[in-house]
Each structure stands twice: as C-alpha cells, then as structure tokens.
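Box 3.1. Reading complex inputs
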Amino acid sequence: MRAQIITVYVALAALALIAPFLGLYPVFLMKLLCFAMFACAFNLLLGFTKMLSFGHAAYFGASAYVTGWLVTAQGWGTIAGILGGVAVALLLGLVIGAIAVRRQGIYFAMITLALAQLVFFVCLQADFTGGENGLQGIPRGSLLGVVGLGNDRTMYYFVLAVFVAVFVLIRRIVHSPFGQVLKAIRANEPRAVSLGYKVDRYKLMAFVLSASLSGLAGSLKALVLGFVTLSDVSQTSSGEVILMTLLGGSGTFLGPVIGANVVVTLQEYLSEVVGAWVSVIIGAIFVVCVMVFRRGFVGEIQRRFAQRSGSAAL
Amino acid sequence: MTTVFGVPLPAILGQLMLGLVNGSFYALLSLGLAVIFGLLGVVNFAHGAFYMLGAFAAYIGLASFGINYWWALLLAPLAVGLLGMVIERLFLRHLYQVEPVYGLLLTFGIALIAEGVMRSLFGASGKSYPVPPLLQGGFNLGFMVLPIYRAWVILASVTVCGLTWFLIERTRLGSRLRAATENAKLVQAFGINVPLLVMCTYGAGVALAALAGVLAAPVVQVSPLMGSSLVIVVFAVVVIGGMGSILGAIVSGLVLGLVEGLTKVIYPEASNIVVFVIMAVVLIWRPAGLFGKEQ
C-alpha cells in the first residue's frame, strides 16, 4: 500500500513538472495550483479539525488585495508583498477565529460567514481595494531582484514550488503532535477537554494556520492573474472552496487538490458553453456531494483500498 | 429646524422608518429560520433564495397571468412553501442522521441552483414591481411624509410575526411542535405523525420567507441575487437573537433594522457592517445570543 501511495505522488509530481510542456496554458495551471493550495489550507480546518468555516474567502481575498496594493501602489518587492498579504490574513484569522471558536458546528459556520461578509463590505468600501473595479495591472516583479517572474513558465515553477512546500507543511502539521491533538478534538471534543487540552487554543491555532495559508494562496493568485476582484472575497468563493474540499474528499491530503482541479476546470470550460447555468451545475454538484458522496473522490478510493488492505493515507 | 447629530430630524425619522421596514423583513426571515432550526436543526441557507423566489412568483404572476398583489400575497408563499416541502421530502429528510453542517451545505447548493436558474431565465438586472393602487401615496404626518406602502409592510410583518408566535407558543399544534423539538421519538410514539409535522414546518418557514419576498417586491428591485447577501445579515440577526428563539428572532430583527437605519444617519459607511459588528460584540459578551439559552 505504501509503495502505491509513493507511486501516486511521484506520478503527480512528474505530471506537475512537465505540465507546461504538454500544451496546457500556464496561467490556467497556476490558477489550478492556487485554488488547490486554498483548498488544502481549508481542509486543514474542515478535514482535520472538523470545523466548517463558511468565510474562508475573507483571508484569501484580503491577502490578495493587500499583496496587490503593496506591490502596485507601494512599490514593494514580490516576496515582501506576499508576506505582507499573509500577515494580514494571519491577523484576520486571529481576530475572527478568536470570536468564532467560542461556538461549535453550525454556529461556527454562521459566525465565520457573517464576519467574512464584514470583510467583504470593508473591501467594497475601502479606498485601496478599488471598490467595484478591484485592482488591476499588478506586476509579478522578481524573486529578490534576481529571477524575473514575468515569464509564465518561470512563474509556474515558482508557484509549484510554493504549492509543494505548503502541501508538505500541511502533511507535517497533521502528523505532528499538534495534529494529533486536532484529531482528538475532531473525534471527541468533550473528551479532549477532560484530558486537559486547552481545546479552544488548539482550534484557534488551526484556524490561524489555515487562514494564513489561504492568504498565501490568495496572494499568489493576485500575482499570477495580475488582478483582484470582489469575487475573491465573496461568499461564492467561500462556498466554492468548501465544494472543492468536499468533492475531492475532506480529511484526505490529495482530495482538495483533485477537487480544486475539477471545480476550476469545470468553471473555466463550462462558463463558455452554458453561461449562467454554470452556477446551477455547481449547485447540483453540491447537492449530489452532500446527499450521496460525502467522502469525496479520494475518500471513496481510500475506503475501497482500506477494505482490502489495512489503512491508507493518500 | 430641529437637528440631532447635526442631521435634520425629518431625515433621521425617514431613515429610522426605512430601517424599520428593513427590520420587518429581517424579522420575517429570521422567524422562519428560527422555526426551521428549532424543529429540524437545519440552518436553511436557501432562505434568501426562497425570499427571492417569493418576489419572483409575485412578479411573474403579475406580468404573465395578471395575478394582482393581494392574490400574490397568498399564492406566492403557498407555491414556494410547497416547493420547500418537496425539497424537505426529497433531500433534507435523509440528512437528519448525519451532522447538521450537511443540511447547511445542502441548502447552500439549493440556493445556488435557484439563483442560477432565475439568472439564466430572467437575467441579473432588477425588475420593478408596482405598488398596489390601494397602498399608493402617503400620510402627511406634519414633520414627514409616511409612504402608505412602507407602513403596510411594517404592520403586515408585525402581525404575521405575532400570529406565528401565538401559533407556536399558545396552541395545541404549537405544543406538539415544541414537544417534537424536545423529543421526536416520544412524540411519534404518542401517535403524532412527526415526519409530516417536520415537512409542514419546513414548508411554513419557507412560506414566511416567500411572504417577505412578496412584501419586498414593490420596495426593492426584484432580482435573482436579492436574497444572497440578505441571508447572511439574517444569519447574524439570528445569532444575535439566539438560535431557535422565536421571540428573539422577531425582536432582534426589528431592532437591528432600526439600528441599521440609525447608523445610516450617523455614519453611513458603517451601515452595511453594523449588524456584523454587533454580532461579534454579542458573541464575546453572551455566546448563546441575547435570548438564547446556553446548552
């Protein structure tokens, strides 16, 4: 089983490395990677801690706006701009998380949703975000003034490197003692409390980590596409990242990556063909997922394998 | 002229009036949400979509079938309520055993479908619905003109909220409903058809949203997305009032509408976010909400 998992990862890594040479549009590939990163960060919360945040677009979008503003209007470098965006996402996550972890389950979902809507309205009205127009013409700059990122392929490998780092980091977090405590909270929260764990603190920590990594994804997306719009902070985006995670398989490592690829590809190609019906299709996938496909793609595959041969972790 | 905070008094009263009208919609919507949550334990994300469908039902009824406002007030909630019952029977019913977040996610998907369908059929732009002839014009109160239609919205909403409260808290049907909320199995054992009760409750909650939609049609633009941001405000209202509390939903709906109107006078930039800020403060101070009980 272990050998099979390694084979899957090696195959995917090879695919990611040669993807720009397969005739695929590099900007589209980068968009896939950014949303995959967003979904992985979200999954840290939904999949591994079982906290459904309904407002993750707030961190994704706010970080995208801040990075865009820093490199465009303030003339910051690329790396500094990204770090600035992530710092804002982290702070937002800390404040919103501290309020939201006071409640569980659907209350948690509603509170994160409402506070994310607050962030949305701030982005709509603040000056630095460009309001309804959003930010445009964000330069990609260069890595420490050495490697220019204007070239799509160079940018692709930069985004890929960050994505792999985030993916490995999330695996590391989940398998660390901290991750084990999160698992305990997911399995039985009152028990974790009675064992003496400061559950709220662990949950807040997971929330902040997830928000920061979502912010990183948002910052990269702003640089890749060169623009940020209100839809990046909207509840629609918050809903989409839930769908990506759920469809691919929440609580699995590869699930969100696959889910993000499926959803973004669907949107990209379907919106040309069917127009506004694309949101009907997304909604229908949501309904199907919730009704009969709660484990998601990877979750289902994992279950089939687990029935045959012990446990697995894709 | 009398001024408060440097704003002329009539302007303030006008905004408070608008706030109260918005508060009436919040109250009707959060009431439906609270009723559904109380019995089904489902946070109905599609509530905004049903509100939108109610408004569209009125619009389509008038444009295509010549059904006037008063009939729409009756027929639109009925039609949308039936749709809600079908959805409960086909989808929601199968999710009561799994975690409550799946109900939220399912209804989110349904909201996306409803909004997408209406946008494909009618476009994203708003449609206007005329104020019914009987309710046109306004009363001159001396210091301001009170549009009759807005007064009617407040009156209708408060009456419907009051009736619903009475139905749930003071009648036999209501006591069965509350009993089923406490212990569905036991109530079922007493020979009451709980699944039917649940289906009708969902239908009724949804019908309240549709009624709010019909009431709103003449004062807002009827558009496919009219409910999508409203539902989030209503969520915040319900969290502030305390989930599942009927009275809490009504009172906090009306009061928060007023507060929003007042904010428009004092600091207009904050009027969109004031409800969310209040929610955050309430959660820090009283996590269960103002009228909620700590479980």
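In summary: Chain B has one domain: 3-285.
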